[in-house]
Amino acid sequence: MPFDYYRIFYYVAKYKSFSKAAKFLHNNQPNITRCMNIMESELGCTLFIRSHRGIKLTPEGEQLYAHVAIAIQQISSGNDELNRTKNLKSGTVTIGVSETALHLFLLPKLEKFHKLYPHIKLKISNHSTPQAIKALRKGFVDFSIVTTPLYCEHPLQSQRLCSFRDILIGGPSYKDIGFSPKRLRDLQDFPFISLNEGTATRNFYEKYFYQNQLVFSPDMETATTNQILSLVQHDLGIGFCPEALAKDYLDRGEIIEIPVKEHANPRDICLLTDSTRPIGIAGKKLLEILMDSEG
């Protein structure tokens, strides 16, 4: 049975009139009547009681209408929701992001996106880089924004968004060692504060120390960079932190920079996507903003 027959049946039953249904459907009454006669013939039962006063449904017609009405209303709701999505009046974007990528890159982009499309819901998960890669692989997020070092293989794709630089920082009591560049080897007796194992940042500094024939063995481990800043601020040790995140603390004199002779390479903030999973309209709009170097 063609779907159009059920659609015509729905509006004939709703308006209790062939002519009104024809007008609503931009059709003509003879064609509407013909379709309903064919439908009754194929179903093998009478759906309408016809009289000069109009039509009404038979018990079989009422039974069919109860089901068809739900289907038509669901389809109508689906069309309405799709139109809202196309017009960016509805939708959800899920993002996996590391703490550093959130503060150094994503926040101003989200601010711009939200101003343009305030009806789009954003679901943001705070992950380490390995966790964000895993969430993307499992389809928990539409895309991830993370920091290097990272390792991803097909079907995941990585695209560089921007770079940043880490610096070594200490609290006020370390100001005496902040006047001139120090070798890493000369700093090993000081208590180091670092992110937990398994994070991209921890992996980066373990490799950095190894390349300089040293072992990175922090005395304190934290879950976030903000915690490193707080611990350093209270003179509990020294630690590496993105320069941009430390700037306000440095300007206020709450922490000091400890220059290091063995310069660490800049790190990147990258966008990760899964080439096998399509991204919705709202997600594509956000990606446009993320990739806009002037935005």
Count the strands? 12
Level of helix content?
A: 40-55%
The structure class reads alpha/beta
CATH superfamily of the largest domain: Periplasmic binding protein-like II
**Main sheet attributes: strand count, strand direction, barrel closure:** 5 strands, mixed
Q: Would you tell me the overall average pLDDT?
A: 93
Instruction: Output the CATH class name of the largest domain.
Output: Alpha Beta
Order of helices and strands: HHHEEHEHEHEEEHEHEHEHEEH
Count of individual helical segments:
11
- Measure the end-to-end span: 53 Å
Number of domains: 3
The CATH architecture classification of the largest domain is 3-Layer(aba) Sandwich
Strand order of the largest sheet: 4-3-5-12-6
What percent of residues are in strands?
A: 15-25%
Shape: rod-shaped
Organism: Anaerostipes hadrus
InterPro entries: LysR_HTH_N, LysR_subst-bd, WH-like_DNA-bd_sf, WH_DNA-bd_sf
Keywords: DNA-binding, Transcription, Transcription regulation
Family: Belongs to the LysR transcriptional regulatory family.
